[in-house]
Design goal:
Catalytic activity: 7-carboxy-7-carbaguanine + NH4(+) + 2 ATP = 7-cyano-7-carbaguanine + 2 AMP + 2 diphosphate + 2 H(+)
Cofactor: Zn(2+)
CATH topology: Rossmann fold
CATH class: Alpha Beta
Distance between the termini: 21 Å
Strand content: 15-25%
Radius of gyration: 17 Å
Order of helices and strands: EHEHHEHHEHEHEEH
InterPro entries: QueC, Rossmann-like_a/b/a_fold
Number of strands: 7
Enzyme class: ligase
Number of helices: 8
Structural class: alpha/beta
GO biological process, one term: tRNA queuosine(34) biosynthetic process
Length: 238
């Protein structure tokens, strides 16, 4: 993919999953300096945090330009989230729908807190763009993944910090097949294979079996969505 970088400085919300890894590649394609931020919030699938440093090291070697653009990684403890929430993402309980129509994998306020924390760090680090993997096309009904939520948050951040930060969500309007396709456009088969083998998405934190689409239990909503998207992506290539 032809590089179209500008002189912007970006901070990517990087969990170690498929979406955030694709977003990191997107940011490295578009901006001259990119830093990453991750959060420990007592998540049940904390294996993703163990994958982050390995992913970052490998991403540096995918393209020489990326190595020069990829800056510091920041890990923030947001354990407060698990103290405030009772969800299947933070406790060993079955994944199911709730009376309010949302799955109990929804962690109230999580993405809002992530973005606000990232904005605070970006302010100190002189980074003007925040990049997140929120998506309205293939999502579980999480209200804090919606485009309107991100746009409203951008306004609030800029009013509260007296800045002109921009929130970028490159996956907002594409499905999971499109996310795999974007990864290929950005980094070729090397990035696709890296995402398959080294990222983590499974809500249950399982990495025992490598499926065609990656590691995971294969039955939780995150695994099902990732697998369905990968099969559709491969089908488009035939």
């Amino acid at each position: 993919m032809t590089h179209t970088t500008n002189n912007g400085r970006a901070l990517v919300l990087f969990s170690g999953g498929q979406d955030s890894t694709t977003c990191l590649a997107w940011a490295l394609h578009h901006f001259s300096h990119v830093e990453t931020i991750g959060f420990h919030y007592g998540q049940r699938h904390a294996i993703e945090l163990e994958m982050r440093p390995h992913l970052l090291a490998k991403i540096r070697h995918l393209q020489s330009e990326w190595n020069g653009r990829l800056g510091e990684d920041h890990m923030i403890d947001l354990g407060l989230i698990s103290q405030l929430s009772h969800t299947a993402m933070t406790e060993d309980i079955a994944i199911q729908m709730q009376a309010n129509g949302l799955p109990n994998t929804f962690v109230p306020g999580r993405n809002l807190m992530f973005m606000l924390t990232a904005a605070t760090l970006a302010y100190r680090r002189n980074l003007s763009v925040l990049v997140g993997g929120m998506c309205e096309t293939d999502f579980s009904g999480y209200p804090d993944c919606r485009d309107d939520s991100m746009k409203a948050l951008q306004v609030a951040i800029n009013l509260g910090l007296d800045t002109r930060m921009r929130l970028e969500t490159p996956l907002m309007w594409i499905d999971k097949a499109g996310t795999w396709n974007l990864a290929e456009k950005l980094g070729g088969e090397a990035l696709v294979n890296l995402i398959r083998e080294d990222t983590h998405t499974c809500y249950l934190g399982q990495r025992g079996q490598l499926h065609e689409w990656g590691y995971g239990c294969g039955t939780c909503p995150a695994c099902e969505l990732r697998a369905k998207g990968y099969l559709a992506y491969r089908g488009q290539k035939k």
